[in-house]
Write a structure and sequence with these properties.
The complex is a heterodimer of chains A (about 170) and B (about 280). With about 170 residues, chain A is an all-alpha fold. Chain A has 3 helices and no strands. Chain B contains 7 helices and 5 strands, in the order βββαααββαααα. The chains are: A mainly alpha (about 170), B mainly alpha (about 280). The interface between A and B is large, with 32 and 46 residues.
């Protein structure tokens, strides 16, 4: 114990000095704890919390963006399908319409042909009748001139019928 | 009694000098500690008065310092205890580092009272410097070490309990089965006694290491400063500036290293005696 006291004395270690220095250190400790460590740790914690929040928000936004992208792609796919369906419908409708128009045109063309044929047939009949009549008249006139005989209406009738029969043949 | 600037000085005493004979505790190292305390208080207040989420200037510096220290000491002490012990260990580091570096400011140890020299306000020898670096006074380093060991005991007993503490130091590791059991008990009791002795010596080793390094640094700088003073006038002045210059840089490094060694050892002592993350105290 005496040796320790001697060493302490040699190094100038005395209780009042020791306690005075400890008190000063405690003041530094108290000041740093209160005015430095506590607010700084709180600030660091607050910053860490905000960064964490920011990361969570960023993750949420990323997720929302992915969901929006998926929705967009789904909507786009639906719109594409709808558009495709409409195009198909329009195409089908167009084809049907074209078919109908074609049918109508064909029917019209056939009608025109039929009418033309009818008209031609009537014209032909009319021409034939006129021709028969004219030929009959000419045959009768020729016959009258050749025979120097006046033909009766029965003769005329007979000549006309004979001429018509021969023309028809 | 005359306050003067030192030009040539004698040896630095191991003891801090009393400034007033009637007040034994008022030593030059106490005055220096008061100055360091005031500077730390001003610095801490200035840096944290208006704290902002986006730090700038002094706040940025002190935040970076605290964050770095926290991460460093967390690795040493472990996550389990860091929140409780960080203020004390960080204060130890900051205080020791600040005291060591401020102790390098010209005037510390070279302004004081002594034998008057030939020039105005000059001394041939300095008997009582006005300021002496805190850590060059064993009262300061021993005070910090003792205070830490008291806190260490408190944290340890609170964490593992008295029984856990005794068990950790005296109980045989791995059980006492077999015929070797009684021998192991005796051996571990002996080892426990050595362990307790080493714990009791920790304040001494902590304080003497820091004191020795800083006092040696002061002596080295003092010697280098006065080395060239025997030379003729202009050469002596130049030598008194140039000779100690490289050692100032060395002392800057020693200052921070010793602060780190002291605080890191405190962290290691805490880790050794408290429950680590893995469970149970471990050596």
């Amino acid at each position: 114990m005496d040796a320790a006291s001697n060493v302490a004395e040699q190094f100038g270690v005395y209780w009042p000095n020791l306690i005075a220095q400890i008190i000063l250190f405690f003041i530094v400790y108290w000041v740093l704890s209160k005015f430095a460590f506590k607010p700084i740790m709180a600030m660091l914690e607050e910053r860490r919390r905000r960064i964490e929040e920011g990361q969570i928000n960023a993750e949420k936004i990323k997720q929302q963006l992915a969901e929006a992208q998926t929705k967009y792609e789904e909507t786009l796919a639906r719109a594409n399908a709808e558009a495709q369906r409409l195009i198909e419908e329009v195409k089908a409708s167009g084809e049907k319409l074209a078919g109908e128009k074609r049918q109508a045109a064909l029917a019209e063309a056939q009608e025109i042909i039929r009418r033309t044929q009818e008209s031609l047939s009537l014209e032909r009949e009319r021409t034939m009748a006129e021709l028969k009549k004219e030929v009959g008249r000419l045959v009768a006139e020729t016959t009258e001139k050749v025979t120097q005989k006046i033909l009766t209406p029965q003769d005329h009738q007979k000549i006309n019928e004979e001429t018509a029969r021969q023309i028809a043949a | 009694m005359q306050a003067t600037i030192l030009l040539a000085a004698g040896e630095i005493t191991v003891q801090a000098n009393r400034l007033l004979p009637s007040l034994g505790w008022l030593t030059n190292s106490f005055v220096f500690t008061v100055i360091v305390t005031i500077l730390i208080v001003i610095g801490a207040r200035a840096a944290t008065r208006r704290m902002d989420l986006v730090p700038t200037g002094a706040q940025n510096f002190i935040e970076a310092l605290v964050e770095t220290l926290y991460a460093t000491f967390e690795n040493i002490v472990g996550r389990h205890m860091i929140a409780k012990v960080f203020p004390v260990i960080a204060t130890l580091f900051i205080f020791i580092c600040a005291a060591n570096w401020i102790g390098l400011v010209p005037g510390v140890g070279s302004i004081g009272w002594g034998k008057p020299g030939p020039g105005l306000w000059s001394l041939t020898e300095i008997d009582r410097p006005l300021l002496r670096p805190s850590d060059a006074d064993l009262n300061m380093t021993l005070g910090m070490a003792v205070m830490f060991m008291i806190l260490w005991l408190f944290w340890t007993l609170r964490d593992v309990g008295l029984l856990g503490f005794l068990k950790e130091n005296f109980a045989p590791k791995g059980g006492v089965e077999g015929w070797l059991g009684p021998f192991l008990v005796v051996i571990f009791l002996f080892v426990g006694c050595i362990e307790i002795l080493s714990i009791l010596l920790r304040p001494v080793s902590l304080s003497l290491r820091l004191f020795g390094n800083i006092f040696a640094g002061e002596t080295l700088l003092h010697t280098m400063t006065t080395l060239g003073l025997a030379l003729p006038a202009p050469l002596g002045w130049i030598a008194s500036v140039l000779f100690p210059l490289p050692f100032f840089f060395l002392e800057l490094l020693v200052g921070v290293l010793q602060a780190l060694v002291f605080s890191a050892l405190c962290g290691v002592y805490i880790r050794l005696s408290t429950h680590a993350e893995t469970g149970g105290a471990g050596h």
